[in-house]
Write a structure and sequence with these properties.
Chain lengths: 203, 203
């Protein structure tokens, strides 16, 4: 028993705390969880927000398809089970970055309400902000930069959100962005305004 | 085609680069990958290194059993396949933190050479430092703070590294720490000395 206690003491002496990391960074962490249909503008707006934050000295990181689907989650497909595990892992990584006092943005369709709520449960109270990027299916389909909707309509992609798989919109998103009628910079600034108004950033 | 190109341009305008993140942090990222038997001192030394780095203003993060096994990897057990996937995921997360210009330390037994080499392949050249914490089985078993060796010897834990599962020591670790005969602070400072001598830190 004595040895075990001694080990724990050593551990705690060394362990850099969450508060110490926040002090070094100059701000606390948060997760900006963008959700919405393919083509709604999630990644573009998330990266624009990330740019605005970085340029004012905030420590940030973006988790998106580019660095997650090719890496951590490359062994996952698009079945409902794999989508759930995909979001779970992203949530856990976002939690680590927020624990490291980053404002981390994530940009994934994340179509299932239950999966997003599970991530919210992981993150300390008040540090998870769900951001719905609203755009009509017509808008998204007309953009279709990667031709995915075309393939889904042709039946070449199965289980495509909005076509033959559901999108469950959040019921109480912290921020709702109207991507049908507003541009990237305006929407990114709406997010920044929210962060300032709610104490995540100094105005 | 025109629209697709335009989308890419927008993306790249917003994207905060690796170099920009390193500039904000004041240093580049690196992965300090501690490996060794249970009880060799990996976590304690890793946290001591993390403390020394943090106290000189380096942006750090520790990945260890406390924040990985209970979170990201809670759906993995200790079979060879699960151990491999465990290390793969940790490697991918370490890569993201290094990409975010952190000096990230990881403290996992990571007994298989092939698994550690796979992580090395993930990380940009020169940013992966394998740190072998050498301690004899006798030393580790005599410490046994959590009573795991006792359970493994009694057959209550199967596949325990060093007892009935192999530990494959690195053949070309960047740093080798002698945990049989040296204390935590001395070993932590050996790591700091290496980082200074090799340009990861300003001396």
């Amino acid at each position: 028993m004595t040895e075990q206690k001694a080990t724990n003491v050593t551990w705690h002496e060394h362990n850099v705390t969450r508060d110490e990391r926040a002090k070094l960074k100059g701000h606390k962490g948060a997760v900006l969880w963008f959700t919405g249909l393919s083509g709604c503008g999630k990644s573009t707006i998330a990266n624009a927000v990330d740019r605005l934050l970085h340029d004012r000295g905030v420590h940030t990181y973006v988790l998106d398809g580019d660095n997650i689907r090719m890496g951590l989650n490359k062994n996952l497909g698009f079945s409902p089970e794999d989508r759930t595990e995909n979001i779970r892992r992203i949530g856990e990584v976002a939690k680590l970055f927020a624990d490291g006092a980053h404002i981390v943005t994530t940009a994934f369709i994340s179509p299932y309400r239950e999966d997003r709520d599970a991530v919210r449960e992981l993150i300390p109270d008040g540090e998870f902000l769900e951001i719905l990027v609203e755009a009509s299916l017509e808008t998204c389909e007309s953009r279709d930069p990667k031709g995915l909707y075309k393939k889904a309509r042709a039946g070449e992609i199965k289980g495509f959100t909005g076509i033959d798989a559901p999108y469950e919109a959040p019921e109480s998103a912290e921020i709702i962005l109207d991507s049908d009628s507003k541009g990237v910079e305006e929407l990114a600034n709406e997010v920044i305004d929210y962060l300032e108004a709610n104490g995540f950033l100094k105005a």
